[in-house]
């Protein structure tokens, strides 16, 4: 009986997996023929053909991976690609930037990661699915020591009341050694388990690891994680240089930040998309403000508290540097 039950369970799992692949194939095949000029018109096609959230999410994902190509011109200066400001280019310019970016991507049928992610979110919005855009560090081979910073954008989507992670950009294809884009759908980046996704996707907002205890990447041993605001404010130096800080409860830690141009930093506005109330939701984190925000160079002091594993240095309430705190036992330190 036990062997029969085991065999039945294994067969059921295999059958369920096969059914899911079959279901995905049907959705993927159907969306191949969808053609629409704007996000809202494409969403109407999706809503007409699919009714459940899992189906809609797959349809949005499948359409993007098969219809949007990666913009390789940014890697080919010899082709005389010139960037010019465009109000539809990025959500960093206009509050309605997600929609503008999505419309531009559909018009040109090319994008980089930000465009892929924002198109996914906008299409989800129109189909009644909850999704968010996530910015952070995407780990790729060949990166040097100076690359541990925000360099990539991806998504989380709520499917049947559960948040899940995906990267539409990396799922769409890859660049070969000549920096030519090869379209090839890769479902390894579709609704990937969080414990697997964290291996090459590290978000600025640790909540979006979807893990109760976000792990420390090896890169922290070289340097702290530098957010996009690190570059917005033109930070040129920081202390300590190592991204891992060891201390015990009650220890006083000192940090410092130097600007390349302090006057310019002070004129730069805060992140318009930041909600500081979200900081309270970040796991095991301490947010440290400078002693004097008006100083040319910033100094920070933090007294270690129990349970804290992450230290985030703030400037104008924007997180600019992220350190990993390793709390050592007091008796271990005294040996």
UniProtKB/TrEMBL annotation:
Domain of life: Bacteria
Keywords per UniProt: Signal
Stated name of the protein: Transglutaminase-like domain-containing protein
UniProt organism field: Flavisolibacter ginsenosidimutans
Signal peptide region: 1-18
PANTHER family: CYTOKINESIS PROTEIN 3
GO CC entries: cytoplasm
A Pfam family that the UniProt record links to this protein: Transglut_core
Domain Transglutaminase-like: 105-170
